[in-house]
Known about the structure:
Layout: E1 6-10, H1 16-31, E2 35-37, H2 50-66, E3 69-73, H3 81-92, E4 96-100, H4 115-120, E5 123-125, H5 128-138
Parallel strand pairs: 1-2, 1-3, 3-4, 4-5
Amino acid sequence: MLKKTKIFLAGPFFSEAEKRFNSEIIRRLRREGYDVWAPQEAPFLTQGLTKEKKTIFQIDTTHLSEADIIVAVLDGKDVDSGTAFEIGLGHAQRKKIIGIKTDYRAFSKLEEINLMIESSLHALCDSIDQLVQKLKDLQ
């Protein structure tokens, strides 16, 4: 039996729109046969206690370390700070990282996204269809 490729979905999930978009990516990737882990499906911060924060951090970073590929949602004028951290950690662990940015707003006149984020990516996609194709190309 072939091992499923493990994908960690990094991205903000602070609005209903963000959660719906992430859920669409998750559904599509799972339908394509990928094993997807997304923080939005994991325990949320409810009390703000240090112990709770450390537990959530540990769960998140463990799943990131176990992933084969990171898919990062980069919509917005600037990348979400938690997503930026996950990209940096993944880059340090030599993970393949694919960004998806469907938002046409740019970081600056010279950059679509921050150059540190862009330089960490193996690819930047502008749609879920393009993301799926890029993942297939990496296999």
